[in-house]
Design a protein that fits this description.
Layout lengths: L5 E6 L2 E6 L10 H16 L5 E5 L4 E3 L4 H4 L6 H4 L17 E5 L2 E3 L1 H7 L3 E5 L3 E3 L13 H9 L1 H10 L2 E3 H6 L5 E3 L4 H13 L3 H13 L5 H15 L3 H11 L10
Parallel strand pairs: 2-3, 3-5, 4-6, 5-7, 6-8, 7-10
Antiparallel strand pairs: 1-2, 8-9
Helix pairs in contact: 4-5, 5-6, 9-10
Bound molecules: acetoacetyl-coenzyme A (CAA).
Length: 258
């Protein structure tokens, strides 16, 4: 598959998607987002891939949805085409584990795309923000919803209403990112984390992800019930037998279902 706006690579069992529109700081136009969806489809279908890393450049993960592409849009066209939904949520609906590796700007749709991944590893150069209010709109790809769940109401309101950026340290402090690493090490660290995830049983990792995500969609009692059902089902897998037997035998587990 020949892509124009992203680069796709693999390292072992890790699929790497690199946003690649340097002339526009990786602004997310519809062509890029369509390609991203195709790349996610391809990695999801590939049995050799156990986890996906999404990254950008040293200067920008992505500086948002493409403002020049959006500029001329009007209502009800935006409503009719369900603007921003088309293909944007493909990354969020990935069933394999996904990690965003963010350096530089992750603004507007860029921050929203990072939040569609399961977790975010940030370079110490990362800057996050939802500056849509400065353009006369508000976040339209999950920013008001996912950011609020990540960082709580006060910080989400602060970012969405003032449009200010926060640095990597603040992003880690408030729970938006799971860890901050030196910019030069970002991709290596993200791929290392993804390789770790991909070394485990894939169905177990997928169910774990599904269960964590369920916490954002349901009540505590229903979430616990959901978790318990998946937990019980895991005892029907060879990988549970292998994982626990390997522990008892003091050896490294060799999971079958990758
Ligand atoms: N859309 C389209 N083009 C963009 C872009 C965007 N979101 N962000 C940057 N670019 C383009 C610039 O227009 C510029 O192109 P030209 O060289 O052709 O003029 C090029 O990328 C480099 O950008 P700058 O010269 O502005 O670079 P800078 O280093 O001076 O500033 C920046 C960097 C602070 C990130 C600045 O580019 C900026 O503020 N970008 C817009 C950020 C933004 O508002 N994002 C939200 C978009 S709306 C959205 O995302 C909606 C949603 O919820 C889905």
């Amino acid at each position: 598959m020949a892509y124009k706006n992203i680069k796709v690579d693999t390292k072992g069992r890790v699929g790497i998607i690199t946003l690649d529109r340097p002339e526009a700081l990786n602004a997310l136009n519809s062509a890029l987002v369509d390609e991203m969806a195709q790349a996610v489809d391809a990695f999801e279908a590939d049995d050799e891939i156990g986890a996906i890393v999404v990254t950008g450049s040293a200067k920008a993960f992505a500086a948002g949805a493409d403002i020049k592409e959006m500029q001329g849009k009007s209502w009800p066209g935006t409503y009719r085409e369900d603007f921003i939904t088309r293909n944007w949520e493909r990354l969020a609906s990935a069933r394999k584990p996904t990690i965003a590796a963010v350096a530089g700007y992750a603004l507007g749709g860029g921050c929203e795309m990072a939040m569609m991944c399961d977790f975010i590893i940030a370079a110490d150069t990362a800057k996050f923000g939802q500056p849509e209010i400065t353009l006369g709109v508000m976040p339209g790809a999950g920013g008001t919803q996912r950011l609020t769940r990540f960082v709580g109401k006060s910080k989400a309101m602060d970012l969405c209403l003032t449009g200010r950026m926060m640095d990597a340290e603040e992003a880690e402090r408030c729970g938006l990112v799971s860890r901050v690493v030196a910019a030069d090490d970002l991709l290596d660290e993200a791929v290392k984390a993804a390789e770790k995830v991909a070394s485990f049983s894939l169905p177990i990792a997928m169910m774990t992800k599904e269960s964590v995500n369920r916490a954002y969609e349901t009540t505590l009692a229903e979430g616990i019930r959901f978790e318990r059902r998946l937990f019980h089902a895991m005892f029907g897998t060879e990988d549970q037998k292998e994982g626990m037997t390997a522990f008892a035998e003091k050896r490294k587990a060799s999971f079958k279902h990758k």
